[in-house]
Amino acid sequence: MSIVSYIVIALAFGIMNMLLFRRCVEASKVRLSLGLLMSFGVAFVHALFLWFGAWLGSAIRFELAGDPAAFQSANNWIFFALALFVSVRGVFPYLRREPRLTVFSLAGFGRVLLMAFATGINVFLIGIGIGYADSAFHAGRCIWPMLILCTLLGFLGVMFGRQLVPVRQRRWAFVAMLMI
Q1: How buried is residue 85: exposed, middle or buried, by Cβ count under 10 Å (0-12/13-18/19+)?
Q2: In this predicted model, what pLDDT tens digit does every residue of 63-121 receive, in sequence order?
Q3: How far are the Cα atoms of 13, 100, 143, 161 from residue 148, in angstroms, in the given order?
Q4: 7-20, pLDDT tens digit by residue?
């Protein structure tokens, strides 16, 4: 996989972080400096989940000793199935007429860490798919785009939530899931 693929995946999860932080900060106001720290913490946990998932996927991928590319088609289909599952799972709450979206309390850093773990399951599944699809996996290619884009877009969500900027969440969620 090329670096562009990792950037697109990081951008998709960054958009989902933006929507999540916008909802959460609207419910409980936080300072901008604390919001930046929370956004970085969530992005750091998501980057670790992506790296660990990719490492796990590369450890259990299908390959032969003599020909490592023998099962590349099957490995790519596993990535496609995981990406499709994450996309359907990510867009499903937005399909209702009155969506009931999750809102986490940002009262303490422990709760933000739990929010990062709860929302990081999709990142972990995509990481496993990346491990299957990318035969020459390098940790730097997946960690840095995820860390930077999720931090920036999560902080944008904090700013949107503080100013009560209306965001078309359904439209942005569909864009993010199409990117995956």
Answers
A1: middle
A2: 888 887 788 899 999 999 999 999 999 898 888 888 888 888 888 888 999 999 999 99
A3: 11, 29, 9, 20
A4: 999 999 999 999 99
How wide is the angle at C-alpha 126 spanned by C-alphas 123 and 130, nearest 5°?
Answer: 130
How many whole angstroms separate alpha carbon 176 and alpha carbon 160? 18
Compute the distance between CA of residue 66 and CA of residue 79 in angstroms, rounded to an integer: 23
State in Å, rounded, how far the first CA of the chain is from the last one. 14
What tokens were used for 17? 């972080």
Confidence (pTM): 0.91
Closest CA to 112 of 177, 58, 46, 62: 46
Half-sphere exposure of 38 (CA within 13 A, CB side): 31
Which strand (E) or helix (H) includes residue 53? helix 32-60
Q: Are 53 and 139 in contact (CB under 8 A)?
A: no
Q: Is residue 155 exposed (0-12), middle (13-18) or buried (19+ Cβ within 10 Å)?
A: buried
